[in-house]
């Protein structure tokens, strides 16, 4: 019999790797017969970026797309907070939460009230600060699963200490990588820690086009410092005379967009690099491109690398913690450059462009490797994991 499962997420209406992963997870749980409700703390637009199964319920605690009691009160609280910081500053959300400025004492109270009155069998929480609240306020009878999308080492020391203190109250902690699992096992009961990587979308291998691949380098993600697009642009500037017959297309949006565009113009790269809006059509674009570059300064997992491999792209990434280091076997299914090194990244790009044999090897091995992350395979991991936690409670 299916369980009533709530997935607590920050903003499921926002494009991003966590949102993609949550969408896939919700669809998987629905596929295997569970009743799934997504609870998004914030709602900033009317439609989700990714597609959910029809049976999945979507709820939000604060809906900025309509003027109602919660959204108006939250807006007022944030205005007040700018003047009287201590009056409206969250008391229970960890102060080192990366998006702390998005919260007020009012939004925090809504989250806690929601958790105290949970009516489900199981809750899966997807953000460290929410995980801490779930551990403290969710009812005892509810099965609690913490899914970590952020590297443990990237949390502040204070947040790490809170994680170690409260994650012991979870029935399971799901890590995306073996490295993070090893870290959690040094602090928590090992039987509570499982590795379940992110999955490719359902039917990802079935969607094909007849288009031939072109001399296109592609990259995609949020235009924020951690994603390293400034490093990519500076790298291309070093080799622009060697890749005149190539185009570099970067897809995304974010607060660094103007800075990135200025960097492109400063280095006279307008004819090579183009910034494109966030797209729902990335799979088709990956079928047309030859090389995918992940220039992140750090990356929890890097599902887009797997997406690119599955579409026969040769992938090049910085050897940053922790995803690329686990996903890429250097010169076997991809190329790794020294973290944040412009020179090394430029060398790796030229290496794959100028060596057809290497390109063919990376393309073939990457595609074979990507099959490990097929939707049905990861769905079975979740199915077995949920069944096992049922048996131990």
TrEMBL record:
InterPro entries in UniProt: Glyco_trans_1, Glyco_trans_4-like_N, Glycosyltransferase_grp1
Limits of the Glycosyltransferase subfamily 4-like N-terminal domain: 15-199
Keyword Lipid metabolism found: no
CDD domains, A to Z: GT4_AmsD-like
The UniProt record lists the keyword rRNA processing: no
EC annotation from Swiss-Prot or TrEMBL: 2.4.-.-
Pfam family, one: Glycos_transf_1
Keywords for this protein: Glycosyltransferase, Transferase
A GO MF term: glycosyltransferase activity
All copies of domain Glycosyl transferase family, residue ranges: 208-366
Organism superkingdom: Bacteria
Full protein name: Glycosyltransferase family 4 protein
Species of origin: Macrococcus psychrotolerans
């Amino acid at each position: 019999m299916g369980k009533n499962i709530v997935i607590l997420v920050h903003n499921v209406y926002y494009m991003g790797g966590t949102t993609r992963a949550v969408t896939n997870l919700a669809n998987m749980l629905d596929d295997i017969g569970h009743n799934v409700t997504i609870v998004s703390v914030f709602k900033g637009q009317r439609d989700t970026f990714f597609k959910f199964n029809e049976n999945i319920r979507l709820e939000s605690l604060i809906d900025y797309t309509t003027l109602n009691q919660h959204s108006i009160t939250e807006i007022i609280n944030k205005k007040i907070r700018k003047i009287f910081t201590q009056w409206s500053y969250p008391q229970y959300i960890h102060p080192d939460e990366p998006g702390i400025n998005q919260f007020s004492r009012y939004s925090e109270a809504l989250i806690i009230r929601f958790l105290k009155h949970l009516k489900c069998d199981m809750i899966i929480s997807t953000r460290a600060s929410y995980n801490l609240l779930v551990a403290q306020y969710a009812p005892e009878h509810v099965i609690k699963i913490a899914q970590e999308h952020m590297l443990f080492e990237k949390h502040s020391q204070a947040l790490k200490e809170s994680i170690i203190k409260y994650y012991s109250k979870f029935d399971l902690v799901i890590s995306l990588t073996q490295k993070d699992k090893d870290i959690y096992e040094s602090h928590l009961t090992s039987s509570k820690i499982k590795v379940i990587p992110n999955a490719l979308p359902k039917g990802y291998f079935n969607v094909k086009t007849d288009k031939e691949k072109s001399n296109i380098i592609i990259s995609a993600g949020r235009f924020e410092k951690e994603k390293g697009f400034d490093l990519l642009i500076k790298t291309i500037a070093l080799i622009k005379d060697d890749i005149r017959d190539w185009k570099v297309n970067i897809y995304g949006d974010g607060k660094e967009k103007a800075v990135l565009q200025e960097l492109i113009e400063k280095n006279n790269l307008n004819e090579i690099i183009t910034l494109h809006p966030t797209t729902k059509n990335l799979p088709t674009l990956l079928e047309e491109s030859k090389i995918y570059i992940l220039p992140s300064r750090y990356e929890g997992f890097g599902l887009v690398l797997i997406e690119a491999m599955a579409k026969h792209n040769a992938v090049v990434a910085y050897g940053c913690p922790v995803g690329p280091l686990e996903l890429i076997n250097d010169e076997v299914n991809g190329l790794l450059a020294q973290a944040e090194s412009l020179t090394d990244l430029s060398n790796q790009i030229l290496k794959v462009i100028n060596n057809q044999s290497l390109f063919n090897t990376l393309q073939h091995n990457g595609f074979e490797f990507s099959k490990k992350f097929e939707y049905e395979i990861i769905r079975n991991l979740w199915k077995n994991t949920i069944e096992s936690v049922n048996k131990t409670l």
